[in-house]
Amino acid sequence: MSRRPTVAEQLARQGVSRRAFLKFCAAAASLMALPPSMAPAIAEALGKLRRPSVIWLSFQECTGCTESLTRSHTPTVESLIFDMISLDYHHTLQAAAGTAAEQAREDAMKEAGYLVLVDGSIPTRDGGIYSTIAGVTNLQMLKDALANAAAVVSIGTCAAYGGIPKADPNPTGAKSVQALMDEGLVPRKPVINVPGCPPIPTVITGVLAHYLTFGEIPELDSLGRPTMFYGDSIHDRCYRRPFYDQGMFAKTFDDEGARKGWCLFELGCKGPTTHNACATTKWNNGTSFPIESGHGCIGCSEPDFWDAGSFYTALSAPADPLTLATSATVAGAAIGVGMSFVNRAKKGAAKSGHETATLKDLEK
Amino acid sequence: MNEVELLNWVRGPGLNIAIGIFLLGTIWRLFEIYSLGRKKDLSAPRHTAGASGWNTIARRSLAPPGMLKRSPISYIGGYVFHVGLAIVVFLFAPHIELIENLFGLSWPALPSQVVDLATVVTLAAMVLVLVDRINKPVKRYLSTVEDYFTWAVTFLPVLTGYMAVKHLLLPYTTMLALHILSVEILLVVLPFTKLFHVFTLFMSRWYNGQANAHKGVPV
Ligand code: SF4
């Protein structure tokens, strides 16, 4: 295989100016919450880098994650970042098809140290037959791909936590990449979770930029998410937060409160328990995020968000109906009445067993 | 089980079980207590001013003369933490939302900063009454395991709730799950411990007052 060009060489070849590259590095720095003064250092690190090979595996998914990434405006950080990696396999985006495509994947896997990006969950029931590519199950393909990988990035909630395919009753036995590693079904490699349904495009590229610049896994939270993007909850960065604190809530989607932009907690907003960068990074080139368009957060970057009760039930309300309440009330009443008969019987027995005490008894 | 799974469990099946046990225990005990009955008092009732069930409810809600000075922490601390609990439980917006969801009743909430303050005061008062209980030899002697246990199951929901809101120690999601779990523990033990005074306090005061009023004794 020919020597991989460095990022600087590649960009020069594509006619990207040094200025444009530095601008990109400044954007990357701000994405990673680093001061802009870090931009030249990032440029230096990235410039010297040999474009690392990236294999993108799409499993049980809806292509929303790829859509999210490609629907970003051009020219963007997103397009530039993909000039920096060598995306050797992505069955939605690549031109090659059929055997040629699978050949590309196998070629890329020969040289160890590549990065694996996964979107979609992996079905495991019945030998994993519920999703196959070119006759190979997702499980087998992931196993092979991870063998020589440096690390894996789980893009989207399905790859990170199982997502919608894993939702109750999970007919295909869908699992996340991390879960498969924990169960020893695939080789263990460092995992970065980039959840979201879909994840924010700039967060995907920000995580990649960090990995490329520093050559290491960023700091992760307990659910494997980079804290630089997932460190705050939506609620903590929400511009409607003052209304929450004042107890001013929209009660329906078209009432006075909704029109005045009050807090959406009562309409089911899951912002308080959801960690993501939506409230700061925003969507559609920084236009807005769901709460800004009047809909509560559905918590899509958290595990099992699909099974966490209705999207329109407040976080503090029961997630499921209280099915036991009626029978518990009836049972309680029945036991109470039963006990009252027992107590009465006891009292009656004590009364009939009563012996009159005489003066003689007392003198005994 | 990660924190989100825990939260989903406590908001779903956990809450269902806890409310079930709470309802079962509460209704059982109320039926049992009410059905105990008393023998009819055949003596002629005596009438003394200030002797009645309602008088007793009012009188026992205040400290007897001199006691406030002798045991200020019990009375003041006790009052402060009970009022504080009422504010925190019934005037915090997410709690009202839960009540509305369960019973369809709702009322305005206090700003969360005010609830925060009430929480801190409640926690401090509860700690104070506990320290007082341990420090005073007589109180310590009279205390049983149940007294400490019921203190703890009441204290924990307030503490975890505060820590969740303030993001202390653990991430919000975990703390929120622990908060709801601690409330569920409280609900489960409430009917079967002295915490049942939530329901019996005023009726037993009234009952004692009325029984003694018949004998002409204002208690
Ligand atoms: S709209 Fe949601 S995230 Fe924003 S303050 Fe209200 S509950 Fe929090």
Distinct helical segment count of chain B: 11
How does the helix and strand content of chain A classify structurally?
A: alpha/beta
For the largest beta-sheet of chain A, the strand count, sense and barrel status come to: 5 strands, parallel
First-residue to last-residue Cα separation of chain A: 114 Å
Biggest sheet statistics of chain B: none
- Proportion of residues in β-strands of chain B: under 5%
Tell me the count of domains of chain B: 1
**Mean pLDDT across all amino acids of chain B:** 92
Low-pLDDT parts of chain A are none
Question: How many DSSP E strands of chain A?
Answer: 9
Please write the CATH class name of the largest domain in chain A.
Answer: Alpha Beta
- Rg of chain A is 29 Å
Question: How many helical stretches of chain A?
Answer: 18
Tell me the total number of β-strands of chain B: 0
Q: How confident overall, as mean pLDDT of chain A? A: 87
Q: Distance between termini of chain B?
A: 55 Å
Bound heterogens, unique: iron/sulfur cluster
Q: What is the CATH fold-level name of the largest domain in chain A? A: Rossmann fold
> Largest interface: which pair?
A-B, 48 and 46 residues
CATH class of chain B: Mainly Alpha
